[in-house]
Amino acid sequence: MKLRVVLVGPPGAGKGTQAQFLSEQFDIVQVSTGDIFRANVGNGTTLGLEAKKYMDAGELVPDSVTIAMVRDRLAEADVRHGFLLDGFPRNAEQAAALDTLLGELDTELDAVLEMQVDNDEIIRRLAGRRTCHGCGQIWHVDYDPTQVEGTCDACGGELYQREDDQPGTIRRRLEVYDEQTAPLVRYYSERALLVPLDATGDVEDVTARAIEALKRATS
Ligand code: ADP
Ligand code: AMP
């Protein structure tokens, strides 16, 4: 199935976790703006140096930078057969820019999956999140622990805690979500694209419900 999907939800809702499974299931490419920024930070590029200031403060990277980056990514050949956008759009300007970009590519979105999780659970998820330096796999110290602490089960790589998963930065990211990103739920609901999803419970159960909901919404 040639699906074009946006994942929307607060930080820690499980977007990255589910994107890994859903992109496999539907054979589409995962495009995560957060991952692209982190890769640039890791490689010390100009884009990474610019983005890091905002990421460390829990703020959004400026639209001009983010939209140009997504424009380049969506021009690549692998997204022609479908994509899953994880972490973009994050405000009204980015949503409008995405509409324009897709128009230029003569295509449109099929669905926007809204991952719903309450704030207490989000804080528990972010505080225990660990990510693999090697393969990018996402783990959790309590909910999804590795066999050996600090070592990725998938590739043996070293796990790290994201710098923006500190309590003060988490609080700011949640505010930014409420102020700037949450209004997109209404935007997409009015366009009849919104697919609400209860994103609590076991990862596998959330994946199963997401697959079912996306199939139903796009059939
Ligand atoms: P996001 O991409 O939305 O910021 P992540 O996918 O990185 O969120 O998930 C945040 C944390 O929550 C990770 O540590 C992940 O292992 C954990 N997590 C994801 N889904 C669930 C779930 N259904 N139940 C418990 N923990 C989860
Ligand atoms: P994420 O991995 O989605 O949690 O994103 C981590 C950080 O990257 C965010 O807190 C922002 O600073 C930045 N970022 C990711 N996606 C975007 C976006 N679409 N617009 C602006 N900043 C973004």
Produce a short descriptive summary:
It contains nine helices and eight strands. It is of the alpha/beta class and 219 residues long.
Question: Would you write up a description of this structure?
Answer:
Helix content is 49%, strand content 15%. The protein has helices at residues 15-26, 33-43, 46-57, 63-74, 92-104, 119-127, 167-181, 183-190, 203-218; strands spanning 4-8, 29-32, 83-86, 111-116, 129-132, 138-140, 159-160, 194-198. Strand 5 (129-132) and strand 6 (138-140) form a beta hairpin. Helix 1 crosses helix 9 (203-218) and helix 4 (63-74) runs parallel beside helix 5. 35% of the residues are buried. The structure holds adenosine-5'-diphosphate and adenosine monophosphate. Adenosine monophosphate (AMP) is lined by residues 11, 33-34, 37, 54-55, 58-61, 66, 87-88, 90, 94, 164, 173.
